[in-house]
Design brief:
The strands form three sheets. A nine-stranded mixed sheet has the order 1-13-10-9-8-7-4-3-2, sandwiched between helices. The chain is 44% helix and 13% strand. Helix 6 runs antiparallel to helix 7. The radius of gyration is 25 Å and the shape is globular. The chain has a domain of 298 residues: Rossmann fold. Keywords: Calcium, Cell membrane, Hydrolase, Lipid degradation, Lipid metabolism, Membrane, Metal-binding, Phosphoprotein, Transmembrane, Transmembrane helix. It catalyses: a 1,2-diacyl-sn-glycerol + H2O = a 2-acylglycerol + a fatty acid + H(+).
Amino acid sequence: MATEEEQIEIIIPNDATSEIDDNIPQSQNGKLASLKAWLKKSLDETARKYLSSDTHSALYQIYDMFKKQMNDFNTVDAIAATLYIYVLDIPLLDKTYLTCQGVDPARLEPQPIDLSEKQLKRLFEITRYTIGIYGVMGIKPKDLVENVEFKTEEFNLTVFLNHTKTKKEEVVEYSASANTYDPSYLICVKKSMNAILIVLRGTLSLSDCVTDLIASPEQVNVFGIEGLCHSGIFHAGKRRFVALASKMEMLHSLYPDYQIIITGHSLGGGVGIVLSALLLETYPDWDIKCFAFAPAAAFSKEIACCKQMKNMVISLINNNDIVPRLSLGSFEYFKGMIKCVKDIVGIHAKELLVDSVKQVENPMTIALKIIGNKKDELVHSINLITTTHPPFIPSGRVIQMIPGKSVPKPISPDGIELEDLTKPSEDLPQWFEVPNEAFGRILPKMSMYIDHIPHSYESIVNDCIKEIGKFDFNKPQTNGTDLL
């Protein structure tokens, strides 16, 4: 009679052989491999049963991409290196870095933007749409609605109408649900603005997260220009274009003199850029303007900086917002930054992360002491990093919005002086047009996550208008001029 061990068929899938421990008896390896194959098959069958084909395929793409990128990624090294990079306080417009990225010397300096009162008011109203589309997640107390069941599509629409001062009859189409490659959106006709608006929601659902994470580069041709695009965002924009093209033709025929405004925040901004490009490519005579707030980076430089994008797209980025910097290329660059830190100053994780707690000493002070006189060498080395994949960057004209006074205080090994972020600034927010390429890498900053919150964008435009004069935010605005 065969033993129980002899009855177990040893099946070792090709992709599992590298994970077999030579110290485990061969029979155990066979059991582990068989169990792994069974689990993989079971999970795959469950995923196919409960997930759409798009989501199922997308999850495999995400897994493969992360497996490749995280193969040589050490979490402790990354945390420690991030602290070193943070205290270096590398400026957004580092001239050495921008020169290496091929930026024209004439564009190395930030260009101040002066907006008229009409432009700011129009921009403020557009900003409200990017927040209102979040529905209940973008709610403020004054947006609360009665006699509508909470968390329904009708509730979210009512929140949107209240927040944007839009009439229900102005809404042409609204979808609150989202699927992979298909974020929530709304179309409305605003006679007060002489505009047809397409508003795309940012990341809110798990399906939106899947779209975000399908970040592998895809070869595309837009305006006759070859370049790369974030795969998930491109497919989402193309799907929205196919679904809306005929409807937009109808609306344009009804309102031929209206400007078509496409806007969104985060994922919605990235998808909006792709949708705008596909619409303009198909209908070159249409007056299309895209306002992308904190846009997820969609295109490589060739397309992002082309003439058509510069004329159509305005990417608005609040201070140190990290999202417009995120792409596969920028992640590879960040891994290169970690390597530079390891090679030049070392990680010293225990001294930096553990001993600093025991000594009750600021870890940033310790990081500066460790860097010592190697700061210039480290910054120079970081600026010269090259990556396998090019970074995706914000498209069109890129406006960085600095909220009020932004005067960095010096950091010394004797102690760290931080700006008191709780004090309201008395200075007028400053807006600058900056090179698109400046957002091709991740620079750790204190406010990089807070700056991405949708309401922070509404707030900074609000602050600018307050400085100009009285403005009733609760009334829809009359015809404004085209921004910039």
